[in-house]
UniProtKB/TrEMBL annotation:
InterPro entries, alphabetized: Ald_DH/histidinol_DH (IPR016161), Ald_DH_N (IPR016162), Aldehyde_DH_dom (IPR015590)
Organism: Pseudomonas jessenii
SUPFAM superfamilies the record matches: ALDH-like
All residue ranges annotated as the Aldehyde dehydrogenase domain in the record: 18-254
Name recorded for this polypeptide: Aldehyde dehydrogenase
Gene3D superfamilies: Aldehyde Dehydrogenase, Chain A, domain 1
A GO MF label: oxidoreductase activity
């Protein structure tokens, strides 16, 4: 069998070797495309610890400075559209034209979110008490876990990451084990920028990794896109810790192929 790429988790600004790996399969041919980490609970702990350690310094940066990192990542994506689109097509089955659209749309979204840096505002409310005002400040939550589906894999990295990072949070992304290659290619480009270590992390694996993230006390918010069934399990796992949730559930994103 020809050798295939071996991807590793991206934790604290580095690619970290894993003890075990999963095969990623080309859905069109059945061929093995790559090997990716079969992460453990210990890997999840390390990624969340890195994100926690980086969060306070990241939050201290002005929002406009944080936005600059998003713009630089967007520029990296635009320099690598063809390669990224090919990666998506091979592992997910999306036709090349749509895969290129997804990559460009992802870069556009990062730039769009960067523009929100000057719109993070507070409020001043008049109190019922004499000579008193109430000030409302928007503060980061802390560490966010982003859990992704297989059907729109690349754009959803940015949709979890960009709002979190812009508002002073750090993140751990868990891609679908069926379509993780594009996420590791995204991480490779992030590593080529000056984004501080620990702000963006990737851990791969099956549902047990998602379960470990969902039940972890070190997660302040979970953002998940996927099935209703999985979303309900995430909700149950997060409930004992009263972890904030953002759940986008039940979308199909189907593709009809017609003979012509």
């Amino acid at each position: 069998m020809p050798s295939v790429p071996v991807y590793e988790n991206f934790i604290n600004g580095q690619f970290v070797a894993s003890a075990a790996h999963l095969d990623v399969i080309n859905p069109a041919t059945g061929a093995v495309l790559s090997k990716v980490p079969a992460s453990t609970a210990e890997d999840v702990d390390r990624a969340l610890a890195a994100a926690r350690s980086a969060q306070k310094d990241w939050a201290r940066k002005p929002a406009n400075e944080r936005a600059g990192y998003l713009r630089r990542i967007a520029a990296k994506l635009r320099e690598n559209v063809a390669h990224l689109a090919r990666t998506i097509t091979l592992e997910q089955g999306k036709i090349s034209g749509l895969a290129e659209v997804e990559v460009n749309f992802t870069a556009d979204y990062l730039d769009y979110m960067a523009e929100w840096a000057r719109r993070i505002e507070g409020e001043i409310i008049t109190s019922d008490r004499q000579n008193e005002n109430i000030f409302l400040f928007r503060k980061p939550l802390g560490v966010v876990a982003g859990i992704l589906p297989w059907n729109f894999p690349f754009f959803l990295i940015a949709r979890k990451m960009a709002p979190a990072l812009l508002t002073g949070n750090t993140i751990v992304i868990k891609p679908s084990e069926e379509t993780p290659n594009n996420c590791f290619e995204f991480a490779r480009l992030v590593a080529e920028t000056d984004l501080p270590a620990g702000v963006f992390n990737v851990v791969c694996g099956d549902g047990r990794v998602g379960s470990a993230l969902s039940a972890h006390k070190g997660v302040d918010m979970i953002s998940f896109t996927g099935s209703v069934d999985t979303g309900s399990r995430i909700m149950a796992a997060a409930a004992p810790n009263i972890t904030k949730l953002n759940l986008e559930l039940g979308g199909k994103s189907k593709t009809d192929k017609c003979a012509g």
